[in-house]
Give the backbone structure.
Amino acid sequence: NAGVTQTPKFQVLKTGQSMTLQCAQDMNHNSMYWYRQDPGMGLRLIYYSASEGTTDKGEVPNGYNVSRLNKREFSLRLESAAPSQTSVYFCASNDGSYNEQFFGPGTRLTVL
Amino acid sequence: AQSVTQPDIHITVSEGASLELRCNYSYGATPYLFWYVQSPGQGLQLLLKYFSGDTLVQGIKGFEAEFKRSQSSFNLRKPSVHWSDAAEYFCAMNSGYSTLTFGKGTMLLVSP
């Protein structure tokens, strides 16, 4: 099992460009999550999908959109990137219960 | 409001010395609690979790944590720190909506 995979690992964008971060899990989990990590801020939830076909906003959703493509895949889109979106982005999944979440390796995004 | 507080941003411990990382939570009932570790450039790995029952829980890599309801705390401990334990540690709480609330993290430095 690969667990949770994310692509790309690194990305540099110019202000105003768009891009999609990809996430996939092979653990047959129902729930998937997108976080951003900034120095001194911990991890903050951007969006989550409790089950296939549903998505909900987290703490910091502005400037992002998500798509739960199927049970395995959950993508995060930046339509018009801003320097404030420079961050490390983590995808996670779990079986939807109160169990722990499993994290991907992260995508380091820089917006110039 | 639900929150997780890690009072120490940085902690330096000598190799072989004991370690205690503090975590306090704010929630109206008993939450589900987790400790994660993040090595530089890596994703998050679960160290241990508390759901109910025994208040002292054992985790991987020789870590343990004690849940104290009266103090709203879930402190992480290790009797003897190794240089490889240098990392950032996050306390997290699941307060009933399948999402996690994270503390801002404590960076552990291990001195020779």
The radius of gyration of chain B is 13 Å.
